[in-house]
Design a protein that fits this description.
CATH class of chain B: Mainly Alpha
Radius of gyration of chain B: 17 Å
CATH topology of chain B: Arc Repressor Mutant, subunit A
Structural class of chain B: mainly alpha
Number of domains of chain A: 3
Strand content of chain A: under 5%
Number of helices of chain A: 15
Oligomer: heterodimer
Helix content of chain A: over 70%
Shape of chain B: globular
Radius of gyration of chain A: 27 Å
Largest interface: A-B, 21 and 18 residues
Order of helices and strands of chain A: HHHHHHHHHHHHHHH
Structural class of chain A: mainly alpha
Distance between the termini of chain A: 77 Å
Number of helices of chain B: 4
Number of domains of chain B: 1
């Protein structure tokens, strides 16, 4: 390549970095630049001089960008480009829809062998197996899109196989505590197994794990958006068909919602990947908005518990408190997932949030210990105890790291590495509950 | 002599439409044409022509097509539409009114511009 060609390529690369100037616009501008250079060379300028003059006459990229932005303001709205001109994206879309359809088929597959949604036994079967049914296509899609090695695919498939065994080998009673516990913990275990596929087997790498955490947050946001759209679609189908005398509830309830939800699992993942570099991440933004509000609410809660003279834990409240801890952890993790320098006050805020949450967790643990002392270890209480201890350990160490971060004695990467390493603890605990609890506690 | 920015800006649309009314063209050729027509006195920053062309296209006054002449580079050609012709007529009317008004002012002043004569 001659000097001028290199220079033109460099200029083009600069122009392409401007979001306001599209690719075909760059083509057009480059054509213009070449015309101008040709003309100047014809009048006797050396090519590199001609290049300088031509670029100067083109105008500064800043000014150009401003004008393009004025004309193409739509480009300032970062867009999710769903269908691109090149064929590769079309093929991607077809594959995504294929995996989504697989999810929809899998979720209806039990119906073929007579497991409907009617009695409690069927529902319990679904509750235990739904994670396998909807997450397997997602993991397969991720393996495909990552071009994962056979070893990784086999490992992920093995974990899902283990999930099938855990959900079905034990003769679960529909009303037993362990049935509910399996239904709650198997999705967690399999989501983390899906994470192995997401990072393409690179699960020892802290950065890859952090990417998976980010992916999880965005995926949840997209699922919520898809659910919102699906809800509108369902309501409109029900309402409009009702006006022409058709009862669509069976179609909506047994086909539209389950198949749509199963397909959405894959589609949401694809959307997260497709827009990764285009749109700001939502989860950190939500985290920043809600962290102070949760800190306030938790502070009020602790005051309330103290004023009420203690806490009486039942099964539902236990789950509620675990959920609360998980949400706070989410706020913490997504806060640091988009960490930028110069946010001392937000570190301080996180420290306050974690400290208050630790207080709540300790109160819950005390109440739980009292209940275990009175009634002994049941499956639920043991699971709740384990979860609280797992989260307590995480929050405690996080609080310490945050304190050192605020004081400036530890970098944020320490906290990041702690959180990403801790994913294995969640996975281990979830598998323990899924695999060991039915054997330990049985169907009572 | 440099022509003021506002005047340049106001005259670009009728100029571009007028040039395209003579036949389809592409960005660089349009600029060359403008330079010829104005005797080099009307100077634009080259790049800024393109956002203008895109605006005219969005408004439906011109349409564009990518074409590759034999042995040449792929190039985007612009062509005026009937709505563009209507716009040109309208602009022409308005400019005629402005020019006529100015002419009257110059005549009533009676003097020759300082840079001519003397």
């Amino acid at each position: 390549m001659s000097d001028v060609e290199t220079q033109i390529a460099a200029w083009r690369a600069y122009a392409e970095k401007r979001r306001e100037i599209g690719t075909t616009d760059t083509d057009e501008l480059e054509d213009h630049l070449r015309d101008r250079i040709d003309e100047l060379v014809a009048t006797g300028l050396a090519p590199d001089e001609a290049f300088l003059v031509a670029v100067k006459r083109m105008g500064s990229l800043d000014a150009l960008t401003r004008e393009f932005a004025r004309e193409h303001s739509d480009r300032l709205w970062k867009q999710l480009v769903l269908v691109d001109a090149d064929g590769e994206k079309d093929r991607d879309l077809a594959v995504v829809l294929g995996f989504a359809a697989l999810g929809a088929v899998l979720v209806k597959a039990p119906a073929l062998v007579g497991v409907g949604y009617d009695d409690s036994g069927d529902l319990a079967f679904f509750a235990r197996n739904v994670a396998v049914l909807v997450l397997a296509p997602l993991a397969a899609y991720l393996c495909w899109s990552r071009d994962a090695s056979t070893r990784v695919c086999a490992a992920v498939a093995g974990l899902f196989g283990l999930g099938v065994v855990a959900a079905n080998a034990y003769p679960f009673d529909p009303d037993a505590q362990v049935t509910v516990l399996t239904a709650i913990h198997l999705p967690i275990a399999l989501w983390l197994a899906t994470g192995v596929a997401y990072v393409g087997g690179d699960w020892r790498d802290a950065r890859a794990r952090m990417d998976f955490i980010r992916f999880t947050g965005e995926w949840v946001v997209y699922m919520a958006l898809l659910a919102l759209g699906g809800g509108v679609l369902s309501a409109l189908v029900l309402g409009t068909f009702d006006t022409i005398g058709y009862q669509a509830d069976e179609f909506v309830g047994e086909w539209l919602i389950p198949c749509g939800a199963a397909g959405a699992v894959v589609v949401a993942a694809w959307m997260v990947e497709a827009k990764k570099s285009v749109v700001e991440n939502m989860a950190p933004v939500l985290g920043a908005v809600f962290a102070p509000l949760f800190a306030l609410a938790l502070g009020a809660l602790v005051t309330g518990i103290v004023l009420a003279g203690g806490l009486d834990v039942e099964r539902d409240t236990l789950i509620l408190f675990d959920l609360l801890l998980v949400v706070v952890l989410g706020l913490l993790v997504y806060g640091i997932s988009a960490y930028g320098p110069g946010r001392e006050w937000s570190d301080l805020l996180r420290l306050v949030l974690v400290a208050v949450t630790l207080l709540v967790d300790v109160i819950v643990l005390i109440a739980l210990a009292g209940r275990i002392g009175d009634y002994g270890f049941s499956a639920n209480r043991t699971a709740a105890l384990g979860e609280n201890l797992v989260l307590l350990a995480n929050l405690g160490w996080s609080a310490l790291l945050l304190l050192r971060l605020v004081r400036g004695t530890a970098p944020v990467t320490r906290l990041e590495r702690w959180q990403t390493s801790y994913l294995t603890v969640y996975a281990a605990w979830a598998w323990v509950v899924v695999l060991a609890f039915p054997l330990l506690f049985g169907n009572d | 002599m440099r022509i003021a920015k506002d005047l340049v800006a106001a005259s670009t649309t009728p100029l571009v439409l007028g040039i395209l009314a003579e036949g389809e063209s592409y960005g660089y050729a349009i600029l060359k044409h403008v330079a010829e027509l104005s005797g080099g006195r009307l100077e634009w920053t080259d790049g800024l022509l393109y956002p203008l062309l895109h605006r005219l296209e969005r408004l439906g006054h011109v349409e564009s097509v990518w074409r590759q002449p034999d042995g040449g580079r792929r190039r985007k050609y612009y062509r005026i539409t009937s709505s563009g012709m209507a716009e040109l007529t309208e602009q022409r009317r308005q400019w005629a009114a402005v020019v006529a008004a100015l002419e009257n002012v110059w005549t009533s002043l009676g003097a020759q511009p300082a840079w001519e004569g003397a």
